[in-house]
Amino acid sequence: MYFLDRRLPRPVTDALRATVLEDLPELAQIHDEELRHKAVEAWAYALAETDFPRVTAIPGEAMPGVFALKRGSQAVHLRSVARISIAIADEFAQEFPEAIVDHDIVLAGALLHDVGKAWEFDPANRRRWEADKSQAGSPALRHPVYGAHVCIAVGLPEEIAHIALGHSYEGDLMQRSLECLIVHRADHMWWSIAGGFGLLKAETAGLLESRKITPRALRTAKDRERQDDNGERADAAG
Ligand SMILES: [Fe+2]
């Protein structure tokens, strides 16, 4: 029997599902029980098709080799985009009570928007694609497409598959749902702002220049020491 990348997936176990909730605790805030359950299932399913043991093992990069965080895994990005997406939705909903947005779809969609990255970043897949790009392409499927596959495979609603598919450039070919628009903007903003803060490895962040973003220098260890000293002095004085 053929599998997509010719490898047997690992079994999806309760231990694997538990790591998903540990690494993405915001999943617990999805109100709808079935949606919450299937969101966990999607990440477990995606991980089982790769060698990544858990979400925090996936590198914190926008695409392989592009916008790589100096520190922090993919989970940092996912959780932060989820919190920002919810903040955007809540901000508008509070100011404009007549505006309608599905809180659960925003949250689940944000936590799942990069679910296809497990496969796109998987070292064995990348080695196979690199070895002969003429065979299946490189990558064979980008993470938005593969992510939509995962969402459909575990029975998530089309609204979530649409966010996985449409959060990145693929979405430019479609009319995005409101919830997809929110996640898309939060996601792209996240990488740009991370770049502005100087949190991305310079050799992976050449794109910042075309966005007219200059990375700020990070605090040095000395700066931090000085700050700690000042804090202690302030505490002593207070
Ligand atoms: Fe993302």
Automatic annotation (TrEMBL):
Residues 220-238 have a biased composition (Basic and acidic residues). It holds the Pfam family HD. SUPFAM superfamilies: HD-domain/PDEase-like. Transmembrane segments: none annotated. Residues 216-238 are annotated as: Disordered. Residues 77-188 form the HD domain. It comes from the Bacteria. This is HD domain-containing protein. It comes from Bradyrhizobium australiense.
